[in-house]
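Example with several molecule types.
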Amino acid sequence: MTTAAHPSSVVSEPTAEKWLRMYRCMQMIRHFEDRVNDLYLRALMPGLAHLYVGEEAVAVGICEALRPDDYITSTHRGHGHCLAKGAAPDRMFAELLGKEAGYCRGKGGSMHIADPDTGNLGANAIVGGSAGIATGAAFSAKHLGTGQVAVCFFGEGALGQGLLYETMNLASLWKLPVIYVCENNLYNEYTHFSETTAGDILARGKAFGIASESVDGQDVRAVHAVAARLIESARQGNGPALLLCNTYRYTGHHVGDISREYYRSKQEEQEWKTQRDPILLFAAWLTGQKIADSAALGQIESEVKAEMQAAVDFAIAAPYPALAEVEQDVYA
Amino acid sequence: MPETAQRELTFAQAVREALAEEMRRDTRVCILGEDVAEAGTPFKVLSGLVEEFGTNRVIDTPISEAGFTGVGVGAAMTGMRPVIDIMFGDFLTLTMDQLVNQAAKIHYMSGGKWKVPMVLRTTLGATRRSAAQHSQSLHAWVSHVPGLKVVMPSTPYDAKGLLKTAIRDENPVVFFEDKMMYKLKGPVPAEDYTIPLGVADVKRAGKDITLVATSSMVQVALGAADLLEKIGIAAEVVDPRTMWPLDEQTLIASAKKTSRVIVMDEGYGRYGVTGELASVISEGAFYSLEAPVKRMGAMHVPIPFSPPLEDLTVPTEQTVFEAARALCGKA
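Resulting structure tokens for the full complex:
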């Protein structure tokens, strides 16, 4: 196997600068979602949103292994993917509030953030609905010889959708550079995945001849390492991969899902938050390795919080689209 | 030997020529579908294309309509110009999420940033003795959805010109071909030409009654017009050619001229495109009409297999002739 085709993308051990960038991005997602919840509770946000809190290591670990021009497709729980791929928080908040300054001019909202500048083909509110789009982007990359890779993020709930298997079959047959990333946060909305998912998840990828691996989705370094390897393999023409990231959704299915005892215990949530938190685990490693001390990490968090406040302020002050926009962009 | 405008091609040949010309013009154009390569589809519409363009551009897929339609959406967004082949229009049902929730909405939902320049070719039409799951005309479903364009050619000339335009369009276009029309011959220029979407065509001029007909029904309307001529009724046949964009003005102008209108279409009558077309005409030409706009479509039944039953389900030259005669007060 050779890396000569795309020498700019050789896998290497991250530098301290890169680790700290990843830490900052995880904090940004955490605090972004905290502000989203706050906007909801204060009735400043129309509709609902599905928070990514607890799953930050997955988006950050994977997107750090991507080139800026690589593609992602995201999900209804997509803020983390969009931010990790490079979206600006102020335009994200503006979109969540339906403002013209948002990534989709306010027409998409929380579940449809899309941005060609960062390779974001769009978050998708149909569970599993983007498997075709991500696979199609990989088809283009192969046919146009661009060396790009597409990452298809989906939750374990999408394992019930046939489209996923149709496109995995196609991607394997055609050796397309697409990584199917299954974020198993344990719950299909309000139902534990064990009630909906038969057999072994990785066996589903293996059945198509797809490289299929699982990783601790709370360990950003582990996610990044396996993602970097699979992404580069796909980039070199070795075909698709399935990466199962075992993680946990700290909050409800959406911001309005407050009382959750009927489907999971508070004790379970507490154990994940205190023992398996991806940010705490990463912070402990960073300080243990003397890459940063706790004061430096605290400084990063303070800066991120201030940045999120400024982004929220921008979005609240931003104007709504003009009413005449309602019929704009139905057709290109 | 120099080609002339008098050259005749079948409808299938015209479709194939449009695809070949666009694939030569633009290397981003590719075809994905079941049995599109060496088999050239069961209707042989694509015969010869794989020999010229290779299996990298004329691509056989698994029997996964949703999957390869979805791949088409993603490929269209990222630099390709895919033409998706859905063998029977009945199988549109399997592509619906990719077409309706994804392709149609991506441009709008992204605030105009992403585009989906994809063509989905498929078929319609009954009387081929194919029974209920291979005979439907489901173009009303996609005509209902903002973000999609819907094209329904009725002649070889229109098929070539409209398909070339559809491939060059920046939006998802659903292109319906009548299976029974593939062998129909007509003049098709050998040179490059396109027909804009949203421009109706008067297939036959007349002053007494307007027959608005789509796709397979255009030939039926022309046949009925011949019968009507024999009893002194001059029928005008107007083909909208595209369900969306819709050339409302040509329909209304013809209705104002003749004052009597039958709208016919092979889709189901109930909640079908005839309802929309009749409404456009009624609203636009109300004070010029001598009679309510009459609608003729497929009967509201699953298409039956048994030939004498199947033949009852769609309008024919004779039923259109009788309806027109009655509408003109010559019953």
